[in-house]
Amino acid sequence: MKIQQSISLKAYNTFGIDVKAQKFVEVTDQSQLKSILEKNTLSLLILGGGSNLLLTKDFDGLVIKNNIKGIDIVVEDNDSVTLKVGAGENWHRFVMYCIDNNYCGVENLSLIPGNVGASPMQNIGAYGVEVKDVITKVEAINLKDFSVKEFENQECDFGYRTSVFKTSEKGNYFISAVTFKLSKHPKLNTSYGAIDNELKEKGITNPNIKEVSDAVIAIRKNKLPDPAQIGNSGSFFKNPVVTEGVKNTILQNFENAPNYQQPDGSYKMAAGWLIEQCGWKGKMIGNYGVHDKQALVLVNHGGAKGSEIFQLSEDIISSVQQKFNITLEREVNII
Q: Is the pLDDT of residue 141 over 70?
């Protein structure tokens, strides 16, 4: 464990933004973290997979890269398995581990970038599934007194792409592990998005979890850029949730506007569609812009500044507000 000085963070964020950290260290267990925190007097930035943030400037402080690994079976029976997973594990590799072992519940979340530790923070979701439905506990270390706390599912205050770790407890905890309870009896969710169509095209009528995962991977690869090829953070904006009145007003002028009724009677609108209607899809400004297949994704083709991409997001928010009277929220963290 070595604290490095003046390190570029380009390789540690999926946008590929080249900013520097005053100090940088990687930790692989709780004792290392405690040892570092006891001596640290600088501002802190915790990094996982670097997939859900936009770095807009050099970080004048200490960056701690979370590399705590491990997948352990806590309890298992004929119906389910409970796994405790290190926060530094790659999310997609964890999903593949589950599929290889026929553990069901995360197959719709295949190929989401980032690490396991970010999954409860963001309450990641895709194709009708949210990770909150399989999380039982989140183990986290208090950054002030170094005590370890286990947040039960309800204590995490999960919401749409948010949790207590992004709201009232933001910056207070270092997530070290996440506990998941997964089923051994598949209850597949294939009705959301294009999963059913993808399966039908492959002639699959009675899919297993691997086939659902393969369908999700194919869909995501078709419309989302690989961060290894084009810098991006996946979906940059949340899908806005609006009242029935706002939804109806939009449908008066755009009868095909995608909308999805929520349990509370509100409606989720497709942010990508809203952005596309404002003319942003595929728009490039020098070496950065909006992806040509999915308007939710902002891209860096190399050399862009985080501040430039942030300004692009501001311009998109402004144009959607003017056209639809809806204020988009960013899904990524701005540093």
A: yes
